[in-house]
Structures are given as structure tokens and as C-alpha cells.
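Page header: ASSEMBLY MODEL / two components / 501 residues total.
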Amino acid sequence: MNDSISRRKLITSGIAMAAGASGLAVAASVASHYGLIPPDSGGIWGVGETLTYATQRLLMSHHSLAREFNRSEVSKVIPVSGDPPKTEPFQRLLAGKFADWRLTVDGMVARPSKFSLDELKRFPSRSQITHQACEEGWSFIAEWSGVPLSYVLNLVGVSPQAKYVVFFPFDESWDSLDLPDAYHPQTFLAYNLNAQDLPTPHGAPLRVRVARQLGYKSVKYLSRITVTDNLKNIGKGFGSAAPEYGYSWYAGI
Amino acid sequence: MLGSLNRGMSESAYAPRLVLQSTEVLDSPRHSALVRITHWIFTLSFIGLVISGFAIILAHPHFYWGETGAIGTPTLFSLPLPTMLGGPSGWGRYMHFQSAWFAVLSGLLYAISGFLTQHFRKRLLPARADLSWGSLRASILDHLRFKRPVEEDSYNVLQRLSYLAVIFLFFPLMIVTGFAMSPAITSVFPFFVTVFGGQQTARTLHFFIADFLVLFLLVHIAMVMLAGFKSRMRAMITGRTGGGKQAS
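Prediction written out in full:
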């Protein structure tokens, strides 16, 4: 009798384990299809990272707006982290007040383009006063102005197969956004900070502003934007430079 | 030694009660398998949260009140810690959120089963009589005098109140103050941050409640040691206290 119980137990738990494993495999493939697996999902922290990203993408509206503030709430101290790129191309453009600077937009788009700063400034602009927190813990409120990224993406015609928008700056801190954040109404290419030209240490001539993620996703010193369906072949394949230094790709939390 | 002393006391003092209990109750473990499993998953997660929380603080050991705060603005206080950039807060954040997931999921499982099995109502909700001032005072004085607790199968009123506060007040507050720091979550639920009056206030409260929970953990461990470390550990690992037919 004992024997039959243990055999039954063995068979039941065997079936349960097989069902669990195939269930997980199906779940992973469905999750991947719906864009719920972050590019840095490997490694020991992949479980938590995937749970956070998938849950936020599943349960939260893609259009929820970050809080906006009054001009009286703008911080007096706007901290700067990091130095501007010391590389020759950036320094040359900076010396020429970015007159020769162009933003390249390419990849999976119908009309690859280059835009000058003046052209970008002639596009419909958007201003917003938002809170920006650094992953380190400090934060500030500032007013940013620029052109919505969605406007530029619609202008160049993004392929329906595209999944990510990748940002290449003049320094090493390249990054990428999924389409919900790239097309988000508060995501834009900022050229003004508190109604002044973007100061050089804040990312001149143009930086990304992503209101629903931490500060390090707002790439500074922008040079090129590439639209792609696959992040595997860029850098080490983690979706941005951050995971190569031990920081998560998704910074909505 | 002390354990056997306790056991002796409990057997003589509580023998009449034991008689009234069915053998089923006597055989049932002190802690159910679900409580034991979630307890130890939660323990590991909590240790992960404390270690990673400390690592994150190292990137900016300064605290503020209100919506914003940075170097160059007035601080509420600063911890006497070195500032370590580009390292601890990276793996710290990965570890913090992964640990938080395990803590929240095992905590939810524990809470749901606690409601379904009426564990909270039967074993943690204090009796109305125990909440009288006299009864509370007696229990507080017993604790202050370090009076050795008699071996019982139920928690005393202070234990009940502190477990309830930790489970239903402080851990939920940890989650909400954590949510208040997430720019994505607050875009959907701005209430999580506005209720505290700002993101930096939420961060500071998150730190203080974490300190309080670490303090609770230390007291919890001290109490377990006072009550008999071996038997309590055995109870939380195997479910049994190993004391023969006693009901604890």
C-alpha cells in the first residue's frame, strides 16, 4: 500500500513538474511576443527585473502621465551628474555652437533623416515641469521644452515591425526605450531647460526626456536615433549601456 | 534545560486545558507548512532587502523632506557613511526589487491563507478583554520585568498587537512608500506620493520604517531566544516543538 502511494505521488509530482515547466515555457514565449521581457532578463536578477517590467507594462496604462508642477515649484538647484564628452567631434560642434550638429534618425524607418537644431526647434514644441529623480536618491523639479519624440518618429515613418528606439549620444551612455515609452506624450527631445538653451553639462544640444523613468534613461548629448526590432546586436545586447555597469535597463521604479 | 523546565511548568499548569483539547489539535503542528515556507522565504527576502537597501543608500546617504532634494539643498539629516557611486546602487537596485517581489508574493500568500484559515482572527486578533488598560499594563510590566513567559499555545496580547501592526501597517507602508519613489507607478497612482507630501518625504519614511522593522526583527530574535531558541526553530522548520504531547 505504501508502495502504491509513493508511486502515485511520484507520478503526480512528475506530471505536475512537467506541466509547470511547459507552462513556464509557454508563459515566457507569450510574454516575449507581447514585449514583456526586458533585454537584461538574463542572469541572477532577471527574475525580479522581468516581473517588474512585465507587471508594469501589463497592469499600467501606456498613457498615464507623470505629475506636472507649477513654475513656483521649480528647484533652485538643478544638479548635474557627469562631465560633457571630451571627444574631438563633440568639442568641435560645441565650439561652433552646434551649427553643424545634425540629429540622424535611421534604422527601421521609411525616410531616414538628419535634422539640424533649428529644424527641430521649428517643429511643434512641448514644455513641461516634471520631477526627475536620480537612481542615487536625489531629485529636482525643472521645466523642459522640446519636440515630442512621437512627432519625429511619425515624420520618419516607423516600420510596424519595430520594437525599440535606440539613442546614441556623443558619450558612452547609449540607451533605448520600448515603444510605449518612446511614443508617450511626455517623452520628448529637449533643447531647453528652464526656458534657456540646454546648458552643456545638462546634455547640449539635445537630450531625451523620459518622464516616467529615472534620470539615467534621459540620454544627454544626443547624436543619433535608431529604430530597431532587436537589441541583441547593440553593445552587449542588454538594451543599454547601464546593465553593462550593473544598472537595470528599465528604470520606471 | 530551561526548555524542560518550561515544559514541566506548562504540563502542570495547563494540564486541565490539555484535557479539553482534541487529539487532533495536539497532533497539529504549531506552524502550518504554508506559514513555515513563507516565513523562511520572507526571511531571506527581508535580509536581501536590508542589504540592498543599505547598498542603495551608499550612493547618496542624505535625506530630505518634501518633493525634491540634492547636494546644495537643505538636508533633513545625513548618515555618517561614505558616498559610493557607480556600483552598490546598481546591484543594490536589482537585488532590492527581486527581494521585494519574493517578500511581497510570499507575504501575500501568507496573508490570504491567514484570512482563509482564520489564523489572524483566531491567533492574532486580541480578545476584547485583553485590550483593557489593566490587562495591557500587566502584559507590558511582565515584559519590562523580563518575566519568563510560560509555555503556551497562544500569543500574548503584546505579541498579537505587534505582529498585527507589522503585518498590516508597517509592511504595507513599506510597499506604499516604495511605490511613491517609482515615477512609473506614481504616473498611474499619484496618490501614493501626494499622500506623503513628496517623493523625498516618502524616501525618508521608507528609511525610517525599514529601521523600525530591523528593530522588530532584533526583538523577534531576542524573544525567540528567551522562549527557547532550539524548540522555536524546530517549530518553524519542522512544525513540531518536539515536546511529546504538549500543545505548544
